[in-house]
Fold:
Amino acid sequence: MATSAWQSRRSTQLAKAIGPPKNALPETAISAAARSTARKSVSLVRPKRRKREYLAVRASGESFREWVERNLEESYGGYLFDISMAVLGVFMVIFYLVINWNGFVKKNLGWVQDVDFYLNLIFTAEFLLRLYAAHDRLDYMRNPFHFAELLVLLPSWFDFITKVRDGVIPDNAIVEAISGLRPARILRLYRFLEFTTSSLQRQIVAAMLIVVSITISTAGILQVIEDCKTPCLTSPRACGCQSLSMLDYLYFVVVSIATLGYGDITPVSETGKVLIAFIILLTFIVVPIQVNRIAQVISSHTDYSSSYREAKQHPHIILTGYIDADFLTVFFHEFFHPGNLNWNEKVVILNTQPPSVSLKKVLNTVDSKVKYLVGSPMLDEDLNRAVLQDARACYVLVNRNTTRPQYADQCTALITIALRRGNPTCPIYAQVINAQNAPTILRMGATDVVVHGLMKASIMARSCEVFGLTTVIMNLISQPYTELDERQSPIQWQKPYVHGYVHSFYIVDIPRTFSGLTFGDLIRFLYDRTPVIPIGMLTEDGVQLVDMEFKLGATADPNLCCKVYAIAKSMDAVEDVAQVPPEQVLSYRKNMRRKARSAMDLLNEEQMAAERKKIKPALGNEVEKIRQNTINTYTIATASTVLPDDYTFEYEEFATVGVPTSVARHIVVCGFPLDTYQFLKTIREAPPVDDETDSPAVVFLSTSLIDEDEFARIRVFPNIYFVQGSPVHFPDLRRTRLELATSVLILTRAKESTFSDRNMVDADAITTLRYIVEITQRTRMPNVVIELERPSNVKLLSSLANDRRTSTSYTLPTIVSRQLSYRSARRGSGRRDSTPWVPVDAMGDLGTSPIVLEEFVAAGRVYMDVILDSLLSESYRKAWIAPFINVLVNSRPDDPLQRRLFQVEAPDELISLQYGDCFRKLLDVTGCICIGLWRPERGVILPHPCVFVNPPPDLQVEPGDLFYLVGKPFTFGDAQAWWAK
Structure:
């Protein structure tokens, strides 16, 4: 009790010494408070140490007895007093055992009596002090332990009185019995129960103290009772006494309690026999009770209520918030990937609930690397159990399927504040549902956020026009197993596809030797000599997609030129950049300078100087500047246009009109996205795919209509239509004019709670896809993107594709169109051969590799939350990777050129060229970086479309191939015109 009170008071004193929390919320608006929180939490000034208070100050109206009781229970002085008394109790027991080790000493030496008396005097003063301070003194004396403390004080006082006044206390049986209680001083060891920190620890210590106390006290009392007052000249049994050492009696008591009874030592006095019989019976009762209590505590006390105790040996990160089994599967796959360097780090999960069955299945696969704790991140004691002060990073997770997204984001904000208060410098990565809440959570102390609603809506919207985008992002974000690239596949398309799958995004430190090159020169140099393709740059204003003519300069770091986000095959390739000989860079720089002089008409020196002033490369330690820019980016991105409030007629018209007959080449969406506004905004702000078409119309097919508040946000966008009906009903599907659509997006809106088997959550989406396949049997199949909640259900999609290919009514198309995605017939059976050679040993227990070779994934037609889960997990090792993906998909709001990832059909001049040559030509002519291509199906050779990320340089470009480019968007017509000139 004293210990817990002291620990509570010590935390209060520490908080007072530090001063008010730097990021505590005042009672004003949340956004204003969060702004000051983020600024102040970064720099915590060490306060001047105050003098420790050992005794509490006496309060007004508090009696002296109450003041003494409060100090004994709650003050630091009382804590030290408890420790001192416990240590003296151990010393007294050891002192008694040493004195009587070889036999009972009837008359101690003078110094021994003095030491014993003064120790007993201290314990007497303590007993009287606690008795005086007790709230109810009678109840205090009724306590068995307190009464035992009084009894063990009497022998020393009897000895003292006998020494001072000889004969005052006569020798009789009562006096001898009281003198024999001296070994019972071992009971003072029960003071150590006050220092236990858990119920299990308390029960174990109590059981040990009971056994030790019974053994030592019984051995000591037997030694007194059995001792011969006069020398025994015959056998001990005849004399009724015996003089044995303390070790002999300890051995006898242990053997008797264990009911072994060897018989080599036995009590000879009647009192000793009665005592040992009583002790055996007492042990039979007391010890099983204690063992049963320990078993009960163990059964109710799981390991989830313990603490993380390996912080010094194994650095750790903390996961808290809404813990989901699906997220943990992806997170562990990324975090414990063999290619990562954090092999010594562990994961501490702090959750308010014990793990469910599905969570336990995931935890069992990484049992030695994960510590699961039940507790709340809002409580300091639980954060201390998770050792927040030493954590390398913290993740705040959100329930993505909640029906109250605003409330979920509020919980994320509160947890972020609690974590930032506990550790002012630890990186905090948070999940957010609504983009409007991202700036606030960043101001509250989060280092970076992954806005689930914005990113999901943006990727889905862009995938309707950029074919295969979902697979491009998923493969480049997730950590691959490079063993796949080493296997030989008999299927022709898998070799270039797997070559791209093993590539990922990395942050590459560009050495200072590259200073003076333009960003385009850097790309050319690294592409020719290392398998690394720089895409963007980390600047003081955040992540930017810079111009190809931006000139790399010097920074404050003597070894680094800049940090770039690049596509690379592995960490070995990233490390090879630092090993490039300076002579090669110098020679390349001289050659490029000669070329630059002949091309000065494209960009003069003054313009280059202005560009250098605008962009300042960062080295990664400008956290506050980059975070502030991220806040501004999300603030601008979430700003919406406000129209007049009178929209009742528009809402009714939207709900009843349906799709006009003039609508064609549009996008059909089965369901409503989580963030419909961001979904439509992304489509409307995206660059046109060609010069002849504007932004496509969007038709929503759903059984229920969105509410008026949501409609008020999306009514600013033109050509938005709604059809009320079911996607699994043929007439409703035909009302969307599906046969003329360019893309179809199938959303999963069901909840896992409605199914007995959580893997059935995608049943509606898969059934909808089946109906679309049947409708397009005799015509063409549009670009279909389907959302799946469970990645394991991808294999069912491939089965549907095989059924369509084996249909007798389906024939091979004769042409390949940019706008349409055709499927070709496969001769022979409908055997699924998309994943026959997948190496199981290369996948790992948590790997996602079995699904990456499924043809719907290879074609880029599946969206899964694995993308955003991987993005969040990679934020720890790849700083600002989430803003980089956001810029790649949506561009920066302040970029006048709107650089982003887009798609263009291969111009005629690039057909039949090797991909490496096309990469260089596209970089030289368009100033855009090519990161791969999407290839439509080619009959038996390629039975389905396929995404090739950074394919081998010798891959031949074919008609109908679509390039993935990063830079200022342009159309196919622009490309044809440039090459014609």
User: Anything to note?
Assistant: The longest helix spans residues 270-300. The chain has 38 helices and 20 strands.
